[in-house]
């Protein structure tokens, strides 16, 4: 008798289910993959059939869309039965559809949200993250670097992709600060580069990069970073750098000798755009809690 296998649902990059080990992966395609990904991302929550149809088949006629959903559900069940995945069950009633996933199994989007919320809370309020939390955060961010469901461009995917980018950037920002506190400046610079690849107009991160170059012994690179940032802001937004950015630039030009680590907090205060990003992250977290509460109540709807 073949033993059922464990799965990890990978939604960053191309959708895949990892069975037992990373060398054994199932990568369904088409509507089967999108439905499984949609339900895995909603993990355990019963979703009304009309909501699933609106997300996956928004332009189809109602009868055709319902037929497409029924076919996709049948194919998903057939695939899950073939793979013999323990701890995963697709429930489909006349009103709702859900994918029940054992707590022992991982959905990578949930893992990203969970770790970023953890390090943004009491666990991340000290001068340093614990070594364990630092390592977990770094590993999760590495696993979350590719775009959410890269092979799909449905509206629901684009909306969720934007939300997840905010969690990813927040996680990188926290990891950057933790590397800096540990004086791992090259690693901190790498975090900054990853953030700026996604949004080069984050001026607070540009300031962090300037100061990190100084701490890493490269003042000329810090000056070039300012010049590149100023040029970008003028070209893209027709604005000058913020006073904090210019103050840091002036300090770097005038200062000689070893950099003072105690100056970093003053110069590296987050700008208004990053503060707004943090508020957005908090709002997204609260909306996620409300969404789960709503679907928890829906779970009592007869199916």
Commentary on this structure:
With 303 residues, the protein is an alpha+beta fold. It contains twelve helices and seven strands. The chain has helices at residues 30-41, 49-56, 62-83, 108-120, 131-143, 155-181, 185-198, 203-215, 219-237, 243-254, 264-267, 272-298, and strands at 7-10, 16-19, 25-26, 47-48, 88-92, 96-101, 106-107. The longest helix is centred in the middle third of the chain and has 27 residues, at 155-181. The radius of gyration is 23 Å and the shape is elongated.
Write the SSE topology:
Blueprint: E1 7-10, E2 16-19, E3 25-26, H1 30-41, E4 47-48, H2 49-56, H3 62-83, E5 88-92, E6 96-101, E7 106-107, H4 108-120, H5 131-143, H6 155-181, H7 185-198, H8 203-215, H9 219-237, H10 243-254, H11 264-267, H12 272-298
Parallel strand pairs: 1-7
Antiparallel strand pairs: 1-2, 2-3, 4-6, 5-6
Helix pairs in contact: 1-3, 2-3, 4-5, 4-6, 5-6, 6-7, 6-12, 7-8, 8-9, 8-10, 9-10
Summary keywords:
303 residues, alpha+beta, four-stranded mixed beta sheet, three-stranded antiparallel beta sheet, 12 helices, disordered C terminus
Summary of the model, kept short:
The protein is an alpha+beta fold and 303 residues long. The protein has helices at residues 30-41, 49-56, 62-83, 108-120, 131-143, 155-181, 185-198, 203-215, 219-237, 243-254, 264-267, 272-298, and strands spanning 7-10, 16-19, 25-26, 47-48, 88-92, 96-101, 106-107.
């Amino acid at each position: 008798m073949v033993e059922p296998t464990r799965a990890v649902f990978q939604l960053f990059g191309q959708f895949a289910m990892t069975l037992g080990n990373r060398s054994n992966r199932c990568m369904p395609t088409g509507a089967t993959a999108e439905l499984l990904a949609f339900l895995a991302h909603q993990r355990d929550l019963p979703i009304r059939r009309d909501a699933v149809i609106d997300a996956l088949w928004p332009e189809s006629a109602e009868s055709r869309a319902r037929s497409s959903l029924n076919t996709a559900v049948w194919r998903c069940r057939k695939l899950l039965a073939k793979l013999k995945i323990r701890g995963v069950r697709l429930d489909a009633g006349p009103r709702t559809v859900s994918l029940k996933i054992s707590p022992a199994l991982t959905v990578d989007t949930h893992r990203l949200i969970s770790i970023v919320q953890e390090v943004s809370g009491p666990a991340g309020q000290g001068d340093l993250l614990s070594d364990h939390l630092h390592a977990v955060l770094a590993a999760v961010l590495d696993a979350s670097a590719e775009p959410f469901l890269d092979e799909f461009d449905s509206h629901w995917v684009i909306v969720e992709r934007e939300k997840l980018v905010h969690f990813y950037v927040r996680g990188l920002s926290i990891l950057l600060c933790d590397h800096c506190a540990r004086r791992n400046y090259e690693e901190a610079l790498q975090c900054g580069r990853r953030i700026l690849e996604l949004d080069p107009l984050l001026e607070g991160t540009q300031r962090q990069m300037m100061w990190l170059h100084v701490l890493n012994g490269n003042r000329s690179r810090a000056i070039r970073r300012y010049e590149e940032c100023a040029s970008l802001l003028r070209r893209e937004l027709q604005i000058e750098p913020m006073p904090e950015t210019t103050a840091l630039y002036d300090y770097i030009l005038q200062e000689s000798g070893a950099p003072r680590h105690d100056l970093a907090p003053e110069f590296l205060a987050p700008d208004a755009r990053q503060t707004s990003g943090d508020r957005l992250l908090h709002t997204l977290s609260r909306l996620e809690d409300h969404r789960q509460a709503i679907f928890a109540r829906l779970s009592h709807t007869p199916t």
